[in-house]
Structure formats: structure tokens, C-alpha cells
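ping. complex inputs:
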Amino acid sequence: MLRTNTCGELKLVNKNEKVTLSGWVQRTRDLGGMTFIDLRDRYGITQLVFNMETNPKLCEAARKLGREFVIKVTGEIAERINKNLKLATGEIEIVVNDLEVLNTSKVPPFTIEDNTDGGEELRMQYRYLDLRRNVNRDNLKLRHLMAIETRKYMTSQDFIEIETPYLIKSTPEGARDFVVPSRMNAGQFYALPQSPQTFKQLLMVAGYDKYFQIVKCFRDEDLRADRQPEFTQIDCEMAFVEQDDVLNAFEGLAKHLFKTIKGLNVDDFPRIQYVDAMKYYGSDKPDLRFDMKFVELNDPAKGKGFQVFDSAELVVGINAEGCGGYSRKQLDKLTDFVRKPQIGAKGLVYIKCNNDGTFKSSVDKFFGQEELNRLAKQFNAKPNDLILILAGEKNRTRKALCELRLEMGSRLGLRDPNVFKPLWIVNFPLLEWNEETQCYHAMHHPFTSPKKEDFSMLENTPGEVRANAYDLVINGVEIGGGSIRIHNKQLQQRMFKLLGFTEEEAQSQFGFLMNAFEYGAPPHGGIAFGFDRWVALFAGTDSIRDVIAFPKNNAGRDVMIDSPSAISDDQLKEIHMRLDFNE
Amino acid sequence: MLRTNTCGELKLVNKNEKVTLSGWVQRTRDLGGMTFIDLRDRYGITQLVFNMETNPKLCEAARKLGREFVIKVTGEIAERINKNLKLATGEIEIVVNDLEVLNTSKVPPFTIEDNTDGGEELRMQYRYLDLRRNVNRDNLKLRHLMAIETRKYMTSQDFIEIETPYLIKSTPEGARDFVVPSRMNAGQFYALPQSPQTFKQLLMVAGYDKYFQIVKCFRDEDLRADRQPEFTQIDCEMAFVEQDDVLNAFEGLAKHLFKTIKGLNVDDFPRIQYVDAMKYYGSDKPDLRFDMKFVELNDPAKGKGFQVFDSAELVVGINAEGCGGYSRKQLDKLTDFVRKPQIGAKGLVYIKCNNDGTFKSSVDKFFGQEELNRLAKQFNAKPNDLILILAGEKNRTRKALCELRLEMGSRLGLRDPNVFKPLWIVNFPLLEWNEETQCYHAMHHPFTSPKKEDFSMLENTPGEVRANAYDLVINGVEIGGGSIRIHNKQLQQRMFKLLGFTEEEAQSQFGFLMNAFEYGAPPHGGIAFGFDRWVALFAGTDSIRDVIAFPKNNAGRDVMIDSPSAISDDQLKEIHMRLDFNE
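pong. complex structure:
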């Protein structure tokens, strides 16, 4: 028996009990005649005490213990003289009479403390030490709890978790697949799923009615800061549903998680049309923790002789309340911000609403006080407000103003990570035009159904067709997205054609799905949530790496196990492959 | 709104309510003026009725519906005249006044019935139709429920589910890995995990104390009848434990599943030494639903002039109670059985215990009545029993007698699938000698710790060293296995050396784990359960395919999606590979 109790549970009521504990040496303190050790395990910290007078040999041994040594001690629980009420076990200590070193430890390359001195690269290399830190343990516990609560809720709603295969078929459309050479089928490959999309649709055809799965998915993309080659989805699908049924079902899940994990009762989520989100926030994932809606100014701003406005497709602004006192320097900084290449605006027009009712603007030359007043009224601006205006091509200008809005929100402290503002974006466009390839791409994916009322536009103005597609957005982060699917073979074929598939390509890649649609496929739809991202949001961290036990770096490498790595010639031969670096 | 209710919930109390249902047409019956349709969904079957007199147009439409059409109906709930009390909804029917065909269906290639007319190949190709059958739906529901109860129990015991990576590193030792070429790291490969073994050990080093995960694992093996290239494990690990702690913890899980899933209270599981299991059952996974223990007969059987016994390393038999009346023909069949190549015995000796107290044996020539009586006494044989004896090389003879024992158990109806006899096999050998490679292999895996008391034999008689390893066996099926691990770098190095690793190989493949052992690795151990197999056992089926939504066939192919398949030259180029069929 290596322990009778954990390091997090002993209290004053246990006084005088004889216990055995095991754990790690967090800290050692020698106070002359006494040596104190903080013994740590997953559950907490318990103070051990060794007395030089009563047991000098044991005390000597204790003094030799290094940080992160693993020990087993037996002793009696005593009441502490100096109680530490911040610690769950802070009223007691163990007077040790037996000590066994279970394992030694080299000095860790960084401190195992909340504020560690280790850089990210080093911590990733020694991830098993990094994971000993409270913040990481709390994040992984949160992740476990969110998965448990998700499964509990989904099961209570009659959903069945069904495992779909990981070795599937490569469908090069969309993101890049990871492929797996088959040894038994020479020259052929499996692919790892980018999502269980087609399988969950087949489960609907199979009558499973309500499916979910917490499942790993894989995408071989060039990794941006917050992407991982493998990531986890809460994947869901329902039969006999329309868009509202799906939104209601998963608003239920989200509310359950807010309630059980964060202790929050949240209101019904607003449902915002995609076009409105773009118009008022310049984004399909607006941060609604603050208002600062866009105001379009083409009518009042054009025709005053200011060339930038006059030639712009869109003149649009926001009102930063209470920022009327911004200095020249502060305004220049904002101009620099919007001019950054990743923001891409050419310049920034401001209107300061002075406290005396007058206005000061960077376009005073073209706009008199009355005209500035007229502009300010569009924003319901009050004295001491600051109006910020961008102009140019519509989409680019909206995007830039969206960034400026978020920046102002941050500066004004309006983006509290403990406040959550969830919403649905609905009625996305079905297609988006790709300038590069000169053809339409599916905005969501090729299985998303167009709105019935927009069917007639499919041939002539496909770009205007809206989809039965929706996203769940929380605090400016896209947490999930889904759609009502096509369940009719002819419509699916038409969709593939629109997306530039030949009939043969469509058949060879997705023939099994279209065949299935011929045997009584029910109307169905679903959603998938980015589980890593949702956990990160609830953990209050910006990076999904903080909530993944063993993440990979930006080059897709696991630096701890040193993977990927070379394989043997025998292994290559068995899978009928040869390396080929001549590209 | 596609439905107000499901097809499984309406009862007499709902009489006169107006409802909308959606589902599949299971069966249509025309009874002159009336047409009845059984409407099916996941939840049940509800009878629809169409009246030719009151609504001839609708009734005509109903008559045109084919099997597996998907329809939506609205109507009023009425009390049935001919109640079907076998059906949950059998007291009511829906008098339909509105019918919409949501989707048509071709005639399915096999009947969607419990006793289908479809062969396995066809059902696999149309798995989405096969999955509509009750037996498959019940199996997948059982699987979901077992996963839910497993998670519930493990969480209640303070285990945390932690996701480990799927893209890891190839370690060719053991079974063959599936590998995944890396595009970003030219010439390098990830491997899919055969199990999360090293990661769960690192989690113990990281202080997570109690880990579990229901997780997919991958092995590129030539598939036998009941193997799949991807399969699911309940993977578990605990820190600060000895063998008994692990057995107690997971006996708890097994009892919880017996209780909640099968409604059974099972006794404490016997713990049987590996050597005893081999001696008394000829197997490390004995079926304990019946006794029929082996009795070794070297002493009484040798030296009577019967060459087969005299030259055998082992003479061993079983007593088939009540089979003393077996005919010549039945005995010949048993001899044929043991002579089958996969059983491998040369012949079978029997002793019939006649009702008059005499004996009849195939070796009467060498054994008189008294000597036969002496043999029979070893078995505590009673009149009308049948003693069956094999002789030869020890291991092969035990294996053959094990098969014969199972065969006799089946013939005697002693292997009821509704009776469950779980047990632990403990103290496996650490190593097994491989004749082919002329070196030792790890019986469990290289991370398994030898018994402390056997350390001294590691150098000179490694084959006799016992391991802290254990299996959970139920009804002759190995459901899980695990061990207490090595947590000391030097011992781990010594183990790799014993297994024929060079120092470089050990370092390059498992250096990260041995490094981790230097930073305060706690004693730890764990277990992994074959989830597919456990579900199959509880479902009462022999094949794990029956409890997997989308299984692969014996060639590792998914015949429904036609995978694996060729990939494009561009894809090959991107992963820096070329096909190479010259072996």
C-alpha cells in the first residue's frame, strides 16, 4: 500500500490518525531543529514535519531530499501551530516517523510553479514536467469536466454517441488530408478524417435520429498560431429537423455548459443574419460583449468634395464613447493601427465630439460644424465621444473597421474574459467566389442545403443563394458551425456540378453518399463544435495549446517525443513506397 | 416542424391529440377500404390508418408508398380496435389527414428485418441499410450505454479522461504501425498509436494520478476473423499503486458494468496464477462457466507399456460428466476433432465409466480394470462419466486439451452466453522465448515490471522471471490486460537490453520516456480493456464487427466507401513519396 490518503484531504478531524502519503517534494524548509516539507500530489499539498531532536537520522534524510523527489511517508496527523487557512489541509501537518524515497529527480529544467521560468520550447520538450503546473492541471480537469457534461446533456436529450472510423477515404476537396498507406492494398491509401461528416449523414440515413461524438479530426494545413494538425470536435447530427430545431437543441447544450461549468444563466442567444453581422460588425463572428455598431455614412458623407469618401464604395464608422479626449498622439497610433498591412486601411478619419458641443475632425476642410453634427447624429454621439471612420472597397473596409472596433473594445476594457456573449449567425451564403481558382467554393461544405426559397437562383445568380447554415459565436470566437444538409441525390449532384466537380469525380468520391440518398434519406442537419477552442474560451486562454495535453508546435512536430521521424527501409518497403525529394 | 412526437411514445392517454410524425414505411397493408402503414423510427413503430371512404385521394397516395419511403403525416390519435399489446404504441393508431413524402426509396437490396435475407458482403456494402435493423441498433445503443457507464464510474473514482495524440512516433517493436507521411517534415512519418502506452505513463510522471481514456488504437496486422485495423480501448493508468490496487479498482469497474448494463451482481473475481491456469485449463483465458479441470496423469499412466504415454512429456485428461454413454461414432468424432490441424493432437484416449462400475477404454490392452479405476479416481469420476486423455509435448498437449474441454463444454450446454464468469489471471511470465528470432520477447510489453522477488533471475534465467502483469478474462475471452510498469531508468534500460535493443535503438525510440523517469517518476501501473470485445460479450455476439458502426473486412477494406483507394499524383508529391511495387 503506497498511500492511505491523498495530499489534499486531511483535516483537523483526522488529528492523531496514522496515515501514509506519497507524492512529490514541492519545497523543503530547514528551521534549525525542524525540517518542513510540502508534499504535493494531484489533490493538494500536505505539510510534513521532521524533528531533529526526536529523530535526527530521519531528519537528516529529509534534508537531503531534492525538489521533485518522489517519497512515501508514514506518520501521525498533528494540529499545526501556524495554520495556513488558504490551504485545504492548512490546519494539520504530518509528524513523520518513516520515510522512503520512491524515486529521485534531477533538478527540473524550469520551476514547477504557476509563474515558471521556463520558455515555451523548453516546457514543450519537458511537457511531462510542464503538466505538473497547476494551470495545466486545471485546464485538463476543465476539459474532462466539459466532456463529461457534454455527454451527460446529449445523452439526456436522447443522442447516441457512435464511433465513426478513423481510416477513411481521401477526398481532396477542401483542406488537405493526412493519408495512410495501406500495406495490404498496395498503392492505396486511407485518409484520416477531417470530420466524420459523411459518416454522420449515413447514420441519419440509417435511422439513428440523434448522433453525437467527441472525436479527433485531422487537417494537414500550414499551421497558424492557433491551429493543430489534430483537434477535437463535438460532432452532432439530427434527423427530421429544420434549422430552428438544431439551433434550439444546441443552444440547450451551450446553456447547460454555461450553467454547469461557469455557473452562469445566460439569456436566449440572439440570432443574427449573416448580412447584418457583416453590415454592423464587419465580421461573421462579432464580439457582442460591447455594442459599438457600424454606421454606414455613404449618404451624408459623400459629395462634400472629400475625394477619399467620394470615391469609396463604402464610408462607415464607429463611435468610441468617452474617447473624445484622445490626444493627437493617441489618434496617430490608431491611424498606424489601421494602416498595418494585416488591417489594410489607407487612413482614418476622426470626429471628436467636444464637451462644448463643437466638433473637431481630421476632415474639417470638407465638413463644417453643421455637417459634422449631422454625421455625429447618425451615431447618437454625445459630447466627449470619438467617431472613427474608414472608407474604401466595401468588404475590405468592413474588415478593417471590425479590427478597429475590437481594438477600441480592448482599450476601453469592454472585453472582459469573464463575460460571455453567445449568438447565432444564420443564413450564410451558400457559395463564395474564389478569385484565384475562378470558381465557386462551398462556404460551409458541399453537403449544405440551399434555402428552398433561393432554389431558383441556383443557375443564374448562385452567389446570392443563401444556405441553411449557422455558426455559434461566443465573444468573437467561432465555437461551432453547421447546416441543414442536402438529402436528395439530384440536388447533391447539382451542387457538386456548381462546385466544379465532374460527374465522375463526384461519383468516385461521394458516390456512396449519393447512393445512400436513394434509399430513404430523411431530412437532417447538424453542427460541429471546436472542443479545444470552447475549452480554451472557458479556461480564459487564447491558445488551444494550453488545453491540449500533448500539443504539436507550428511545424507540426511533437518536440517531446521527437516526431515525426524517419522510418526504416523495411517499413517503407512494406507499404510499397519510396521517398522522393525531386519535386 | 417535421414532427411533434416520435413513433415510440404515443399511448392511449394521448387519444384525440393531433400529432405530426415522420419516419420510414416499414410495412403497408391494404384491407379493402382501409390502408394501414407501420411507420418506423429509432424509437418504435406507430400504426397509421388511411380510410378509402372518408379520404380516397389520401388513401390512394398511401397505397403508392414503397418500403423505406420517408414520410411525414399529420393526424389524430385514435384507439385501436385490434390492440397489439406487444408494441409500446399498440393501443393506438393515427387517423391520417395529411401526408407528405419527404423522400422516396429504391427497393432495398435486402429486407430490413431481424432475419434479413442479405449476406454479409451485401450488408456491409449497404451498411447504412443494415444499421436500420433492430439488432444493430440495439448493439450500438448498448455500446453507447457501456461507454457512458464506464465514464460515469471512472469519474466517480476520481479518474480524469485525457486525450492523448493520434499522430505519434513509429516504434517498430511489437505489432506493425500504420504510418502517416508528413508533408511539412519531408521524409518523416508519424505513426498511429497501437495504444497510448507511453503517453499515459508520461501522464503519471506528470502527476495526473488517475487517467483513463476511451480511445481508438491501430494495428497493421494481417486480420484474423475477429480483428480490426482500428479498435477501441478503455485505457487506464494509476500512480502510487501496486498490483492489488489496480485489480481492485478495475474489478470495481467491471462490477459496475455487470450491475448497470446486465443487472447482475457478480461475486469477487477469482485471481488465478498464470501457471495454475495453464496447468488446470491449458489456457491463460480459461472459461470458468464450467469446471472440468485438467488432471495430470504422468505418475499413474506411465510405465504400463503404452508407448504413447510412456514417451510423452505430459499425460493429461478431463472428465466429461455424464458422457459415459457416448457411442463409438461420437468418440470417433471427438478423435477427429482433436486431430484437426489447428488442434494438433495425434490421438485421443478415452475411459468410459460404465454404470455397473466397470470401465471401457481405448487402452484396455495396457490398463486393466483396476488400473483404469485408479485413473478414474484421479478425476473423481462417477458411473456414466467419460474421461478423455491426451499425451505429448506439454504445451501443445495442454493447448489441444483446452480446445477439447471447450468443445465438451459446448456440447454439454455449459457455456450459456447469459452466464458470466470473470476472473483475473496474475503473475504472467515477464518474457517469452521466440524460437524464430532466437531471442526473448516481452510477454506483455517492454514497460512491464518484473516481480521484485524475481530480480535476481533477470541475468541468468530470465525466462523464469514473473511479471507484475494481469489479465481480466470473462467466459474464456481476454477482456483486458495490464501491468505495474517500470518507473526507473536503469531497470528500463536493462529490460530493453534483455529484449535485444541496442542502446541507440532504445534511446532513439524511447529516450523521452527514460528521460522522464529521471525527473521523479512515481510507481504506476494500469490496464487496457478491449472495448469492442467487451461490448460484443455483453451483446452476446462472437464478432466485434457486430458492435462497430462501420467495420472493415478481412482485407482491411471498407466496402461501403471503397477505401483504401488511390490518391492523386499531386498528393503523393506533396508528401514526398513515390509508389514502389518492386519488392
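Residues 383 and 543 of chain A are 39 Å apart (CA to CA).
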